[in-house]
Amino acid sequence: MLQLDPQSQSCGSAMLQPTKPAIMIIGGAEDKVHGREILRTFFNRSGGPEAHIAIIPSASREPNLTGGRYVSIFEDMGAKSVQMLDIREREQTNDPYWQRATEECTGVFLTGGDQLRLCALLADTALIDTVRLRAQMGQITLAGTSAGAAIMGHHMIAGGGSGESPNRALVDMATGLSIVPELIVDQHFHNRNRMARLMSAVSMYADLLGIGIDEDTCAMVEQGGGLQVLGKGTVTVIDPSDMTHTNEPIVGSTDPLSLHSLKIHILCHGDRYHLHKRALL
Amino acid sequence: MLQLDPQSQSCGSAMLQPTKPAIMIIGGAEDKVHGREILRTFFNRSGGPEAHIAIIPSASREPNLTGGRYVSIFEDMGAKSVQMLDIREREQTNDPYWQRATEECTGVFLTGGDQLRLCALLADTALIDTVRLRAQMGQITLAGTSAGAAIMGHHMIAGGGSGESPNRALVDMATGLSIVPELIVDQHFHNRNRMARLMSAVSMYADLLGIGIDEDTCAMVEQGGGLQVLGKGTVTVIDPSDMTHTNEPIVGSTDPLSLHSLKIHILCHGDRYHLHKRALL
Predict the structure, then answer these.
(1) Which residue positions are annotated as catalytic (chains A, B) (predicted)?
(2) A189, A193, A232: best to mutate for the B interface, most B CBs within 10 A
(3) How far is B257 from chain A (nearest CA, A)?
(4) How crowded is residue B160: how many other Cβ atoms within 10 Å of its Cβ?
């Protein structure tokens, strides 16, 4: 009699893993040692054994160390090629070799570090324009973790505090890389108690959606706007569509914000949400 | 020509301060030195110069020190009488003198300390039954700060953590004193990053309402269910009426909770909300 072996079943489903490109917004501190679910999903969606992966470590002040770790991981997984675009000056983005790399790769990975540094180096360069367009058109899988996640929206959280009521001074905003412009992303979310700062950010841009991503957790956005949660934590969606308020303190004020009728979803592994419909799937 | 003196105007409005009894749920660390808005409101709603105030310091392990401070404050404000019901053993609640005090007072103030200690001393005693009934019937103003606020609901947050996704192990629940049974109260709310623990609590009792109160802030509940915010911080209302979820971890599990469609209001000074209608006013 045929006995199903759970081990081979699990291998079977791993082989059937979807390989469609996606934009993967990772909350930082993703598992790099054990199951590596998120990094493996990035590898698979970048083409698996056919993947040509570009690592951009420019958010980090130790790009060799930070980027090198991801190079090893994706090489070990069996990617066809993995190269590091070690951009330390804006001028380097004009290098034809790196331009070609971004045109020909199947996956791009933005490491953690400082989101302001990453934006200062990449914003308004032809290189990031290519990456953005190819990711938005579903030609490549683009992943960003921590600072690499923060830059996904048009409006970006550059820094902020916790331990206070939502208020205008609790969050510093800057301009991101507009990969998924309609989002304001925060990372290390529950781990660093960032709910109030994300609420403060969302209050200023009520047409946008706040997305708070925990460590070792990924909000994976597919073509068409479907978002799926991977990893061990949660993705918090703050939807201010119905928001009203009774005060509107000036920018920089520490006065607490009145924010009525926020809709909040705490999404776990496997939960799905549609960014354009603003509805659970 | 008649000149209005702002000073006398302000005195005038102070004299017209509403004096209806209310239940005042205070998030801890209320201003005891400067404007003392919250404590002054308690004094006024307890009857002002006609007030007979009972302080119950039993949550505190230093009841004389903790309670004594409030005695001085309300004596300084000009209350007709202020006495401390320094209950350190359950048996003391049967003392006819203290029974009579709770029957005849116009205001009761529960200090901070440890909510489990307060409940252990007072739960199911005739003394707290008298206080609860009189407060619910609008005969007295009952205020509780910090631990004295935590005990207001039937289900009480006894302790918990922060820095994690909402999960069953993040909050320890116990039975409160059921002053406003439909609430789960948390205090020092944004100050101690307690959003995730209140969400975790509310997820277990989806027919209740979560109320998170910041320091120096008060959710004042009037007869009929109207809630008004006083003080310098915010009152966060977590309304799970429309909540759905895709998982239901067992009690004590650290697995993150999936919580969809929570409605959240961050209310500031002067904002009003109706507890029974679950609507902003």
Answers:
(1) 146 (charge relay system), 188 (charge relay system), 215 (charge relay system)
(2) A193
(3) 7
(4) 19
Is A188 an annotated catalytic residue?
yes
Contacts of B160 in chain A (CB under 8 A): none
- Cβ partners under 8 Å of residue B173, min gap 6: B155, B156, B157, B158, B201, B204
B7, part of any domain: no
Which one-letter DSSP state was computed for residue A92? G
Q: Which of A46, A58, A146, A178 is catalytic?
A: A146
- Does residue B164 have an active-site annotation? no
Tokens of A273: 């949400």
In the predicted structure, residue B10 carries a pLDDT above the cut 50? no
The C-alpha atoms of residue B100 and residue A191 are separated, in whole angstroms, by 50
B191 interface with A at CB cutoff 8 Å:
yes
Look at residue A78 and tell me if it is in a domain.
yes
- The verdict on a CB contact (< 8 Å) between A244 and B166 is no
> Which helix (H) or strand (E) covers residue A128, if one does?
helix A126-136
For residue A56, the surrounding DSSP H or E stretch is strand A52-56
- At B259, which helix (H) or strand (E)? strand B259-267
Question: What is d(CA B28, CA B187) in angstroms, rounded to the nearest whole number?
Answer: 7
CA-based nearest residue in chain A for residue B263:
A263
Q: Which of B193, B258, B270 sits opposite A162 (nearest CB)?
A: B193
Residue B158 in any domain: the answer is yes
Please give, rounded to a whole number of angstroms, the shortest distance from the CA of A146 to a CA of chain B. Answer: 16
Dihedrals phi, psi of A192, to nearest 5 degrees: -115, 20
pLDDT in tens, A17-64: 578 999 999 999 999 999 999 999 999 999 999 999 999 999 999 999
Cβ neighbours of B264 (radius 10 Å): 22
Cα separation, B214 vs B135, whole angstroms: 23
Q: What is the pLDDT of residues B102-154, one digit of tens each?
A: 999 999 999 999 999 999 999 999 999 999 999 999 999 999 999 999 999 99
User: Is A2 among the domain residues?
Assistant: no
Number of domains in chain B: 1
User: Any idea what the CATH number is for the domain that residue B133 is in?
Assistant: 3.40.50.880
The mean per-residue pLDDT over the stretch A157-175 comes to 97
Query: Could you tell me which of A278, A196, A213, A265 has the C-alpha nearest to residue B266?
Result: A196
Q: What angle is formed at CA A67 by the lines to CA A178 and CA A231, rounded to 5 degrees?
A: 65
Residue B6's pLDDT band (cuts 50, 70, 90): very low
Q: Give the pLDDT confidence score for residue A12 in this predicted structure.
A: 36
Task: Evaluate whether B253 touches B169 at the Cβ level (below 8 Å).
Answer: yes
- pLDDT at residue A206 greater than cutoff 70: yes
Determine whether B10 is an active site residue: no
Give the structural domain span for B91: 19-280
Instruction: Label the pairing between strands B259-267 and A259-267.
Output: antiparallel
